[in-house]
Amino acid sequence: MTLERTQDYRRVKMISDANPMQDGGEWRPVISSNYIYLMESDHGKDVGVWIFEPEEDYFLMHACMGPKCRGSKAIKSARNAIGWLFENTDADAILAPIAKSFRHASIIARRTGLRVHSENKGGKAYIMTRKMYCGGEG
Fold first, then answer.
1. Which CATH architecture group holds 2-133?
2. Which of 10, 62, 65, 127 is 20 to 30 Å from 99 by CA-CA measure?
3. Strand ranges (E), the chain
4. How many whole angstroms separate alpha carbon 98 and alpha carbon 15?
5. What mean pLDDT is reported for the chain?
């Protein structure tokens, strides 16, 4: 598995179009030069993309993973994407909003070290701060 930053929006769109949300949700990746797109590839074939949306003090984290980047591969990919963001930007925190229906995404968030930041009837928002990433408490 290989993670690389891309500005090839066609690749991002192809992954998104090939892997629609399972619950029929309407979210689609926004194509913007302000966003950071990290493409996960396996043997030269794109299998997923991590999308980081800049906010004032943090980045929102979104993902679109194909069938070949699920389970333990998705967890490893998420760890690599989080590491890439903290090592290559001045991000203070990552916030990952996850709908209640995406149980698998919540598992990935927890297994990569994110903690619940807030919760409502629709789902949870998970957070990882730079301090947490570097081994300190949140």
1. 3-Layer(aba) Sandwich (3.40)
2. 10
3. 2-6, 36-42, 45-54, 59-65, 93-99, 115-120, 123-129
4. 19
5. 88
